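User: I'm putting together notes for a lab meeting next week and I want to include a structural view of one of the chains we've been expressing. I don't have a solved structure, so I'd like a prediction I can at least talk through. The sequence is below, exactly as it appears in our construct file.
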Amino acid sequence: MAMRALGEAGGLGGRHMSKAPRNARSFETIEIADLRRLAGIAQARIETAFARHPQKRALYDAHLLAICLCQGAADHFLNPAASAGVHDFDLWAFFWRRPDARLWNRKPFTADFGPSKFGRSPFDPARYEGRRVDVLWRCIPAEANEDERAALRRYFAEPRTASARALRLKAAVMAWPPECAGEIIWRPGS
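Assistant: Thanks for the context. Below is the predicted structure for the 190-residue chain, given as structure tokens.
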């Protein structure tokens, strides 16, 4: 998927933060409980995709390495005082790349975080009661028994795709598995 398409669909938004003005952003602190709620939203969207493509479920269902909060919201999680706030939440599901199969490319799923301290963006459609959640995914190389954190850090440190190169410009924080929620996977400049 081209970088431009990702930006237009929500996800990466190109190299810079969205153009949403300050009054369209939330500056509330993102807590571990919020990360877990976001992970649940992402898992529900992944489940919907697998229900529509059952042949992919058999290939990938057991190969989810992690779900990470990425981009501006991850930067905000790490340093709310220095961030530009949260316009939306970008959740990336990372699957172990199988040599014998390909995960299909698709536009991001969107979901509604629902009513919360984060409010809603006035730029989102009226159907959203809360902040928009974009759910995207990628398959990444990982050794059979490799720790998911090591595989993710390598993905960011040694970017081989346009997605990886764009994602590494902002932070990435684990949201799933639940016991890893809040763990920093990537911080720009690291």
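A couple of points you could mention at the meeting. The first helix runs from residue 3 to 9. Residues 1-17 have pLDDT under 50 and may be disordered.

User: Perfect, that's what I needed.
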